[in-house]
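Justification of resources, computational component.

The compute hours requested in this renewal are based largely on the per-chain cost of generating structure records like the one below. Each record pairs the submitted sequence with a full structure-token output. That output is archived, and it is also reused by downstream analysis tasks.
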Amino acid sequence: MFIAIKEKFTDNINQREIAEKVGITEFTLSRIINEKQATQKTTAYCIVKAIDSNAEIDDYFTRKGE
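The structure output for this chain reads:
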């Protein structure tokens, strides 16, 4: 599971647009960004690529429980 690095998600990202691209609700994306909900690797990957196609998961998320 992956936990978002809240500081990396700036106010200028459009959560509605990203949620639509990823296929999750805006509510779920908000919970992920605000560190209230962990997410699977594939969802974290899709979120990151929707924000920046050159970014990697580790740029926006930390791995939980290794």
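The chain has a mean pLDDT of 93. The longest strand covers residues 2-4.
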